[in-house]
Specification:
Strand 4, helix 4 and strand 5 form a beta-alpha-beta unit. The termini are close together. This protein has one domain: Alpha-Beta Barrel (TIM Barrel). With 210 residues, it is of the alpha/beta class. It has an eight-stranded parallel β-barrel. A two-stranded antiparallel sheet has the order 9-10. It is globular, with a radius of gyration of 16 Å. Helix 2 runs parallel beside helix 3. Helices cover 30% and strands 21% of the residues.
Length: 210
């Protein structure tokens, strides 16, 4: 099975087009206002309208209010939701949309126990842990912390790039990989060549493991 690819932190239509053109399966839009990659729902809608069928827009939240989620869904009803904070399962499931629950991996955190409360999620995303930031750090973590034989598809994030995504796929065998900072020239500004190189390495990893 091929590894799915999410390019996250998109803020410009041309970057979404580059990601789609090179074969991305999902495009991530940050809805956390403290992030330098934040994009307003109306701008998300404008970019999402240009996505082809079967490419998924993913709205990434950190401890949002219900109103914030509803505002995004009013603009982009087809969005998959990703919750990257301390949201509980009841809140995540309250919007009638597929959703992803993310968690930061750190020594001493039992991710199997953590994710057990989120069995209704479409997928679990494992990212590098940071005390103040939620994703987009460019930091790698110990992939041995990723749950083995998980109950839900696993999306691997955190410090991935063209130089190490082959190793990551072989070590974790994730359903999908999620990248942001390593395909940027500045926060929220993607580079088409870096996106192409990353996706090429994912495809090469899939071919070698098939």
């Amino acid at each position: 099975m091929r590894t799915r690819i999410k390019i996250c932190g998109i803020t410009r239509p041309e970057d979404a087009r580059a990601a789609v053109g090179h074969g991305a399966d999902a495009i991530g839009f940050i809805q956390w206002r403290r992030s330098p990659r934040f994009i307003e729902p109306a701008a998300v809608a404008a970019i999402a309208r240009g996505l082809p069928p079967l490419v998924t827009p993913v709205a990434v939240f950190v401890n949002p209010s219900r109103r914030e989620v509803e505002e995004l869904l009013a603009a982009v009803p087809s969005a998959t939701l990703q919750f990257h904070g301390e949201e509980d399962a009841q809140f995540c499931a309250a919007f009638g949309r597929p959703w992803i629950k993310a968690a930061g991996a750190k020594p001493g955190r039992d991710l199997v126990k953590y994710f057990a409360a989120f069995t209704d999620a479409s997928a679990w995303l494992v990212d590098a842990f940071h005390e103040e930031l939620y994703g987009g750090t460019g930091s790698r973590f110990d992939w041995n912390l990723v749950p083995g034989s998980p109950d839900r598809p696993v999306i691997l994030s955190g410090g991935l790039g063209a130089a190490n995504v082959d190793e990551a796929i072989n070590a974790v065998h994730p359903y999908a990989v999620d990248v942001s900072s390593s395909v940027e020239t500045a926060k929220g500004i993607k580079d088409a060549a870096l996106i192409a190189a990353f996706i090429l390495e994912v495809r090469r990893a899939d071919q070698r493991s098939s």
